[in-house]
Task: inverse folding
């Protein structure tokens, strides 16, 4: 039995390892156009920052380790075409080509960075995106010889790089076309994030929101000036594009595999595509949102791992259902933790809930403890049913803890009323007697009580 | 309407505040034999340690603040008797007595420290228990003039005081009659706690397990020597008894209120006792365990707050149900976090489940992050149904986060299979790609699969 996997970063690498464990006598092969396999791309900003010296730290499993467990990895091997009738894939390399047969095919082609159509953007060598190991190496190298950097986009990667760059002493400009930074959060939380970051004593940086980049100019293949929609001219030694990603679906689409309404490969709960014996997982695959029940595309390394495992189990003859995602994220920038799960208030409205929310600003543990920090927590629920819909938390410490506590509640479809009974741990070094989460629930309970009385 | 509350630390203080808010025109009165009202007794070890100078930091709400919101607090006022037929209570003070009528009565008499029957124990003034503000003040004062201290008992308070004392430079002996320390954890976890603590470079301390204290001797009202069952003679400058607490139920029992099988006051989900218009909440009240469905007595400040709120709402004419507890706890000793929720493997067996468990030892975040620490996590499930039963976590950091994530899952009665889909937040500074919790669930899933195949 040939189990062939296209792509080998997170979902693909996980799928290969799991398939071999479930079905030890199967031939498990990974084909990837990448120069590396099985690495933590989420760790690249921390490599750039200098938390560790050697980029090899990011490699989870080497080609040799895969080989030792009986898995063949083919690097720099681009899959040109999937032929579902023959159950073949066509591989192209720099010097040769190959036809490979499969019994089960797992597509884990990931996502690509979006390069926005800006005048001059393709002219210069000091403009980067960050997806692969080489990108990280190149950005770090250039960073070490630069004094100013411009990040276009203010989402997760943008802010993670902001931290990496300011910690290396660079002056950082962040240009964002949206009116707010960290667009995935509700406006009120996003405003607080900006205020917190701007009041940080660390780093030399500036946010330019509501600004489109109109043109990039420079000389000798080096971009130097960024012109924005309001007429600003920003000088820079290097540019990093953090303007989002799109699913890499071309070969799937060419093979006639159904693409979902989000633009990613449509799969069922078994991670199976519309064509028999072909699975998809990770950033190239569409997901179901557990709270809204709707198809979404939220590409994350943690999800890729779960989906890779699940796809492999089903391909290799075991059974696994993947229920979907909650859109849970966390990141850090300049001592501010930003985390969320489920639906924002805005998203909840869009999908037809009647959201209400509670915003709590507290210390994350009893205020008399020396290590106490602040936490701002927003919890969103449906005012008709009381169903919990999501939460957002930012703060010095402890924000991610509250969000993970919410994820289990969302997974279990708990209501606010039910959550009031939650027996969260308490001791002065760890939380307030009434945890900020329970506080938020009590506010929501009171709000709903009022609505019902009217 | 007279809402009368007996006791004013956590449950009582909360009940008073909530009752007044729900029913502003009610007369709300607190009677307590204590010299203080509304304070964080969980914070006493941190006061003793010296995290803050003034014990008043522990006071949540003063008598004056209660008065300002229309609540009368009567300190040093011992309730001698409840007369349910007349709906009166009898108060005794140093200089006078009083009969007070009630329409609704809330009993929040808390728990008392157990003083074990040891020869000589009542003879000396340097033997302490820790429950009230005065206890904290006295222990701190004595600590500052001592060089050796002996703690009898190695539960939460015992280990919190161990940290407080070693940080103040004292030599600490901990004597435990049980064969393990932190008896609330399973043996394997308790062993790991002991190993972690004993390998700590901080502090000068020793555990003596499996040792009963047989006799305490000394001179001039000062205990000096502790003789143990194995014949050891331990010299000490002071002794703190951390040998547990028992619910303070005397006046309830005398009034004919039903006492539960755990020895605490029996209440229903409305926190109502067996006698009309009398509620009980906090450490004096029995609780229902959400996982086992059985009555338990787990006295905790966080629970006291929830129960106080709930009792007050019902007494004041609103409606509130309290579902019960999970036995969630957390504490810290010498940089080790110890946390648990739900049933231990041992407890699960006792109440009739067929537990299996997974033990995971991992870094709590990606190992290449400089702040990564270790975490040991044990998750317990029922092998027949897959129902999650509980978890225990210890480690340098991040242990409490995993336990709170489990509490919501236990509250929602999730199975291991369902939890596999949990979309926990991931970024290198916060967790591993596959969180230790998900890792444990995968191990449990595989174990259950094997059992089902056989």
Result:
């Amino acid at each position: 039995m040939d189990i062939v996997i296209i792509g080998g970063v997170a979902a693909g690498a996980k799928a290969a390892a799991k398939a071999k464990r479930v079905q030890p006598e199967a031939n498990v092969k990974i084909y990837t156009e990448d120069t590396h396999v099985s690495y933590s791309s989420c760790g690249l900003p921390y490599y750039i920052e200098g938390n560790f010296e050697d980029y090899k730290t990011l490699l989870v499993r080497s080609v040799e380790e895969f080989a030792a467990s009986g898995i063949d990895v083919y690097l720099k091997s681009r899959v040109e075409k999937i032929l579902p009738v023959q159950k073949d894939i066509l591989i192209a390399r720099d010097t040769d080509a190959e036809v490979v047969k499969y019994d089960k095919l797992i597509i884990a082609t990931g996502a690509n960075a979006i390069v926005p159509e800006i005048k001059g953007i393709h002219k210069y060598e000091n403009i980067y995106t960050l997806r692969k190991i080489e990108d990280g190496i190149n950005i770090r190298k250039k960073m070490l010889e630069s004094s100013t950097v411009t990040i276009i986009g203010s989402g997760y990667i943008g802010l993670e790089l902001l931290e990496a760059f300011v910690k290396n002493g660079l002056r950082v400009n962040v240009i964002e076309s949206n009116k707010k930074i960290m667009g995935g959060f509700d406006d009120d939380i996003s405003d607080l994030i900006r205020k917190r970051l701007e009041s940080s004593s660390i780093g030399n940086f500036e946010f330019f929101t509501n600004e489109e980049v109109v043109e990039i100019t420079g000389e000798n293949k080096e971009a130097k000036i960024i012109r924005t929609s309001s007429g600003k001219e920003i000088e820079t030694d290097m540019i990093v594009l953090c303007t989002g990603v799109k699913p890499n679906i071309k070969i799937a689409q060419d093979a006639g595999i159904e693409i979902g309404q989000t633009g990613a490969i449509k799969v069922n709960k078994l991670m199976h595509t519309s064509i028999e014996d072909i699975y998809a997982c990770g950033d190239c695959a569409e997901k179901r949102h557990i709270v809204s029940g709707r198809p979404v595309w939220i590409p994350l390394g943690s999800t890729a791992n779960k989906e890779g495992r699940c796809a492999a189990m089903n391909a290799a003859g075991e059974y696994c259902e993947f229920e979907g995602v909650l859109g849970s994220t966390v990141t850090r920038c300049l001592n501010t933790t930003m985390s969320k799960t489920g639906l924002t208030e805005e998203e909840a409205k869009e999908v037809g809930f009647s959201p209400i929310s509670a915003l709590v600003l507290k210390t994350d543990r009893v205020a008399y403890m020396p290590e106490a920090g602040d936490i701002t927590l927003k919890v969103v629920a449906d005012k008709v049913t009381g169903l919990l819909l999501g939460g957002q938390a930012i703060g010095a410490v402890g924000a991610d803890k509250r969000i993970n506590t919410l994820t289990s509640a969302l997974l279990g479809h708990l209501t606010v009323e039910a959550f009031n009974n939650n027996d969260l741990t308490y001791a002065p070094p760890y939380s307030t007697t009434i945890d900020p989460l329970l506080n938020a629930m009590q506010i929501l309970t009171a709000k709903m009580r009022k609505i019902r009385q009217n």
